[in-house]
Amino acid sequence: MKILIIQQKMIGDVLTSSILFEALRLKYPKAQLHYLINEHTYPVVQNNPFIDHFIFFTPELEKSKIKLFNLAQTIRKEKFDIVIDAYCKLSSNFISALSGAKIKISKYKSYSSFIYTHPIKYKNESTSVAGLAIENRLQLLEPIDIELSKIIIKPKIYVTDSEKEKAKQVLLESSINPSLPIFMISVLGSGTNKTYPLDYMARVIDFVVQQTNARILFNYIPKQIEEAKSVFIACKPDTQKQIFMSVFGANLREFLALTSHCTALIGNEGGAINMAKALNVPTFTIFSPWIEKKTWASFENENNRSVHLKDYKSEFFENKEGKIIKKETLTLYKEFKPSFFLEKLNVFLDNILNK
């Protein structure tokens, strides 16, 4: 049996959909399992023992219909028995339609359901600690006789011992003792509408340092350096002494290795939070007002806590569609003051530091 799973675009989505491979391997141990992903997301699924082969969706493919057609033809020649389209956008619809697979599974959408032998209607409410993002992906396995009632799979990232050792040396060379508390701060989201106001984030970091005296690392990429610096500058002088701006992952694998040594990751909801959970690093997540907490607040417990403006000011969301909320995100963010959740953050810090 030969199975292709398609999950393009974002790192968090690619990591989340990787759970399908573990479930498939349990049911079909001899199957050939292939994963079509965007090239830049590969580091989060690198070394995954359940995936046999990767197919990369490159930036060139996104720009060229001819190259997309050629990719679809290449996939057709592979003669997949099953295609599971976890992405379900135009490009993956096209690839699925031309795949030649006898079984084609995806999320139900009115405009594309005719392409698939099994268009699955996602549910709206979570029934487990896994959260909707994971539960709905697992639904895609229903048509191939995998008993979902017995499965709760958590995404996993596989960092090598050598990568961890290299990251440890980076910390030691920066006078950071890996055995003492270290917090990775996701100071910036993937966009403005997923980034907690920078002055508010500075207050959160001040609180973390005040309560723990921990060393602080920032998660950012080089092009975000000015925004990261503005958060640093907005922090109190005593807090700044605990922030090591120069210690950051130059690439995604380095970030993962550094995070694996951290006591917890705190900050904006997004790929960094999902990656920390996959590394079994505790997380405290600040959700953007327009993101549904019930979808992405996975495996919530004393080690993984999250906050959303809706938890404190539900009236701001009454009788409003998601599109309207998204347009009002920046205004709503200003209402989401750190004082709302510092007590909950303090409980989280006490828990992870006193184990």
Assembly of the depicted chains: single chain
Our measurement of the CA-to-CA distance between the termini, rounded to an integer number of angstroms, reads: 46 Å
Helix proportion = 40-55%
Largest sheet: 6 strands, parallel
Poorly predicted runs of 5 or more residues:
none
Task: Characterize the overall form.
Answer: globular
The number of helical runs is 17
Range of strand content = 5-15%
Query: Order of strands in the sheet with the most strands?
Result: 3-2-1-4-5-6
What does this protein look like?
This protein has 17 helices and 11 strands. Helix 1 (11-17) packs parallel to helix 12 and helix 4 (65-77) runs parallel beside helix 5 (90-98). Helix content is 40%, strand content 14%. The longest helix is centred in the middle third of the chain and has 15 residues, at 198-212. A 6-stranded parallel sheet has the order 3-2-1-4-5-6, sandwiched between helices. The termini are far apart. With 355 residues, it is α/β, with parallel strands linked by helices. GO terms for molecular function: ADP-heptose-lipopolysaccharide heptosyltransferase activity.
